[in-house]
Every structure is written in C-alpha cells, then in structure tokens.
Amino acid sequence: MLDALQYEFIQNAILAGIFISIAAGIMGSLVVVNKITFLAGGIAHSSYGGIGIAIFLGLPVLLGATVFAVIMAIIISFLTLYNKSRIDSIIGIMWAFGMALGIVFVDLTPGYNVDLMSYLFGSIIAVPQADIWYMGILDGFIIALVVFFYREFLAISYDAQFAKLRGINVEFFYTLILIMAALTVVAAIKVVGLILVIALLTIPTYLAESFCNKLSSMMIISSLLATAFTLLGLVVSYVYNISSGASIIMVAIMCLIVVKIFKK
Amino acid sequence: MEKYIEVNNLSFAYEKEQMILENINLTVNQNDFLAIIGPNGGGKSTLLKLILGLLKPKSGDIKVNVDKSLLGYVPQNTNLNINFPITALEVVLMGHIGGQKKVFGYSKEEIACAMNSLQQVSMEAYAHMKIGNLSGGQRQRVFIARALCANPKIMLLDEPTASIDVQGQKEVYDLLKQLSQTIAIVVVSHDISVLLNYAKNVAHINKTLVYHTLGHINSSLNEDTHLCEVELLSALGEKNSCGCH
Cβ A209–B83 below 8 Å, yes or no? Predict the structure, then answer.
C-alpha cells in the first residue's frame, strides 16, 4: 500500500485531491448557505457542453469546460436576479441542453477515442500536471477573494436586502459566487466527475453545519472533511479497484450516516 | 420639531397591476413612534420599501431628510435561514458594512460598537451563540441591535413581532418604547396591541392612508390588563377618541 506513494500518478492524485477539497469546502459552504445547490448542479452538468466543444475543436478540455461553465454561471446569475419565478425550469433546461450539446459534439468528432466515462465519473489517478496547476491557482484565487470580501459574502448570503441597503453590490457578489462555484465544479470534474461533483460540494458542508456557528469555521471544517473523504476514498479506490469518484462519495456518505445516527 | 420623512401624494403600483397605494400623505417627526397598521396586502410593507428606496414611486414623492446611512431597518423576522452558520455578534457587525473597512476581519472599534448595541438590547450574553439557537424574540432584538449599530436617527421595522410569542412581543415593544426617546420609530404591524401604551400615532393603510393620534385611546383603557381587541376597537370607535372623523 505505502509503496504506491512513490508513483508520480499517485502523488498527483493526492495533490489534486487536497487542492480540490479546499476549493470544494469553501465554495460548498457558500453554495449551501445560499441554497443554490441546484444552480451549481445545473452549471456542472451544462459544462459538459464545453467539454464536447473542446474535444470537437481539439482544444484543451479544461479550457472548454471553464469558458462554457463561466458563461453558464453568468447566464444563470442574470436569470436568477431578473426572472426568479421561472428559474427552476430554466436551470432544468440548461442542465439538459449542456449535456446534450456535449454528447452531440463528441459524436461528431472524427476518430473519437476520448473516454467519456472519465468526465462523468472522474479519474483522479489520471490528473495531468496542468490540471493540478489549475487547481492550485483556483485555490489561491478563491481563498484571496473570500478573505478579502468575507463580510460582503456573509452579508449577501445571510440577508441580501439588508446588504443592498448598506450599499453592497449584491448582484456583483452573487455573480462572483456563481463564477467561483463554476470554476470549482470544472476543476472537480477530473476528481469525482461531473455527476458526483455536487456531492463533494454539499456533503462535507452539510456535516460541518451542525458543528459550526460561523461561516468561516464552516469553510475550514468543510475543507478538512472533504480532504479526509477524498484521501480515504482514494485508498478505497486503490485497494478495491473501484472508480475513484464513486469511492470518495461513498466514503463521505458513510461518514454522514454514522455521524447523523450518533448525534441523535 | 424636525420632519424626518415627508411623503406627498404618493401612489404606487407594480407594473401593469392595480394600485397598491393611492395618494398617500405622511409625515414622520423627530420624536415619533408611528405604527403602520392595516390588512394583509393593504400596502404597509410596500410603503416601507418605498421609504427605504427599495421601490420607486409611480407618482408623488418621498423626502427623507436624514442621511441614508442613518436610516435603520429591521426586516421581517421570517425564521428563515435558521441553519445559517452566523453568530449574533456577526449579524450585528453587518450593520457596519458600507463604511470604511479593514482589509481583513473586523476592527476592535467595530466589535466594541457591536457589543455596545447588543448591550442596549440586553443580548450581550448571547453574542457568540448561533443566531438559529436563539428564540424569536431574542433574534428580533439582535436585528434591532444591528440597526442600532449605525447610530440611526430613524428606525423602520417590518412586522417585528410576527412569529414571536406574547412575552417576546412585549419585550420587543418595551425596547422600542425605550429607544423612541432618542430615535424616531416606525413600526409596520398587523398586530394592533402595539397601539396600546407604545405607539404615539397610527397610520391605517389599505390602499389609502388614515392617520390617528393615539393619546386619548391610551387613557381610556386600563393599562395593566390584557388587551382585548374588542375593547380597543370600541375605544377607537368612540367619538373624538382620536383627532379624525
């Protein structure tokens, strides 16, 4: 088991797991307290459209997914702010549209040989060096924004109307949260896959919620829990030869069930 | 006596819908404790949002003669967001937003000021508790402390006693009465018990506005007994009990 650590792909997987867990813990907290899990899910799945287009055009997949997800985040933010009554239907449509677009473009790609499953379920042991850089920079970007604008994020999440009265640009910060969530989702696709990314955002946060009475401590605890789940899941995946994404999520859900039973 | 808020011939309707407020005239003075009452959908909260500048009037105008930052606002206590990870102190600290801020965290002065506001509402012992673990009345007092944080000249409250038990309601009203010695208070409520012993004036809004001065009503009811709404209504119905006809 321990000799596995000397392989570079295992080292990369561990690094990627830690990096993505930090981003997921912070953004998961913001997504959960803002009750926008469904929005984040819509962005995650629609980003598959970007993956399909990138494969078709021969561009880096991460780039395609990032651009597409950010555009989706801005559209969803705009619709939430100005046409709230139909938002659930619209997200449902964008969710399906992105997935369908991705599949169409992948089908159209001549001589296609990309492993579709790796995007749906993740493949943490095949994370390239460039993606790890992306995750590291993303962590730095998210931590800097959250530290610098902590009060603004807290205020718009807790009481947007009051924040607006105090002169905060609520629309700007709301859009910023969705863009940061979109970037996190794209980075997490490699680790747990786009189907399971929402679980990585919500389960650690849901667990942390019962122990924390501050948003800041919720972010830290969620990040630590996400890291623990990812690394444990990685071990399970290695030992039993199961998909890494599914292993990580199963570990998280097992912990959630155990904690919820014993806390009663 | 300084006029803090002047509303002249104000009308309002949401797009393409029927009038919600029609030809409203209202003045809020420096030492007022004004209760805005009326049926659900009568336009009470809409008027409050117009005064706050969250909505724009269709016709007429609203003059707010104090700086916007000195307008304290306490939103409706909806009991939503009860699981939100935030302490009472952090809620109060939100009142400082908009002024100068430190790059990282809260300054000592801000925390001292927030603690002082909590003390004014007798909630300093609960500063580090999660807001969701407080009772409805306690939570409402924390929201009042948040508004106090900005040293307001006027405090506008939207249904401050909705979903609070009777004891909690009395605590909130007692606190408001005490604050009204230095701050003009405007309370939107469908709970008419605020009229007894607390508010000085009342504006009844149901699309149009009727203004009453309350001095006579209070003296004609026994202060110590439980308020029966029938008694209050009969007092309001007495001739000349208030200035209107």
Answer: yes
CA A192, A194, A199, A201 torsion: positive or negative? positive
**What's the Rg (C-alpha) of chain A?**
18
Q: Which two tokens stand for residue A221?
A: 């605890």
Q: Is residue B101 within 8 Å of B89, Cβ to Cβ?
A: no
Using a CB–CB cutoff of 8 Å, tell me whether B130 touches chain A.
yes
H helices of chain B, in order, are 44-52, 88-93, 108-120, 136-148, 166-179, 215-220, 229-237
The rounded mean pLDDT for chain B is: 81
Q: Please list the residues that pair with B7 across neighbouring strands.
A: B26, B62
One-letter amino acid at A250 equals M
On whether the CB atoms of residues B34 and B200 are closer than 8 A, the answer is yes
Cα torsion through A141, A202, A154, B122, rounded to 10: -150
Say which CATH superfamily domain A3-259 falls into. ABC transporter involved in vitamin B12 uptake, BtuC (1.10.3470.10)
| Structural domains of chain B in order of their starting residue, each with its CATH number | 1-66+153-245 (3.40.50.300), 80-151 (no CATH)
The residue length of chain A stands at 264
Residue-wise pLDDT tens digits, A73-91: 999 899 888 877 788 888 8
A185, A244, A202: which is closest to A48 by C-alpha?
A: A185
**How high is the pLDDT of residue B240?**
46
Which residues lie across from B154 on neighbouring strands? B71, B184
For residue A217, which residues of chain B lie inside 8 Å, CB to CB? 85
Q: What is the layout of strands, in order, in the sheet containing B59-64?
A: B21-29, B3-12, B59-64
pTM of the model: 0.86
CA distance A209 to chain B (A): 7
Show the tokens assigned to A74: 């801005």
Instruction: Identify the pLDDT of residue B238.
Output: 53
